[in-house]
Write a structure and sequence with these properties.
The chain has about 170 residues and is of the alpha/beta class. The chain has one domain: 2,3-Dihydroxybiphenyl 1,2-Dioxygenase, domain 1. Helix content is about 30%, strand content about 25%. The protein has a seven-stranded mixed β-sheet. The radius of gyration is 15 Å and the shape is globular. The model has no long low-confidence stretch (mean pLDDT about 90).
Length: about 170
């Protein structure tokens, strides 16, 4: 895995390229772990690796998303959803919320996508993940968020699976 594949991102074009990459990589993670593609929740995050990149992308995000007076806001609603068209067998998805993550030294990934399962399917998947029976899946470490993290050391993106209700909860950081 090449560290910081897209960083530093400094333009809307670069941001869109990174979003398309994260979309495809996260769908790959779903297929590897579940044997199928899961529905997206409409949330996509792009991870910054430099302070200057974070400042630049935060400014760009402010142009693309609705403002918020909630200082704890994590995901921001896009004025215009970003549609990533189907490519090969990777399905189309419409992203309505964007998250720009500040630099975290030990997280080289390009970004993440949230997927969801119906509550009963999620409960089964969570039980299997806790037992280590889903390849590339682990319980996300934050106790306030009930999510399964999908990962692969060879893929520089992360995917998160939860119920639809939880994917809406992450839009506000508690």
């Amino acid at each position: 895995m090449k560290p910081y594949r897209y960083s530093p991102i400094s333009s809307q074009t670069g941001l869109i390229e990174a979003i398309k990459y994260v979309h495809k990589a996260c769908h790959k993670l779903c297929e590897q772990s579940f044997g199928k593609y899961l529905p997206t929740a409409g949330n996509i995050g792009i991870f910054c690796h430099y302070d200057s990149e974070y400042q630049q992308l935060t400014k760009l995000r402010e142009e693309l998303t609705e403002p918020s007076d909630n200082f704890n806001q994590k995901y921001f609603r896009l004025y215009e959803p970003i549609t990533v068209v189907a490519e090969g067998d990777t399905p189309e998805a419409v992203y309505t919320y964007l998250y720009i993550r500040h630099p975290v030294p030990d997280r080289p990934q390009v970004g993440d996508v949230d997927f969801y399962l119906e509550p009963e399917d999620y409960a089964k998947a969570k039980e299997l993940a806790q037992k280590g029976e889903i390849s590339g899946a682990r319980i996300f470490e934050r106790p306030d968020l009930d999510m399964i993290e999908l990962y692969d050391p060879e893929v520089d993106a992360l995917a998160y699976v939860s119920t639809h209700k939880m994917t809406e909860k992450v839009r506000i950081k508690n």
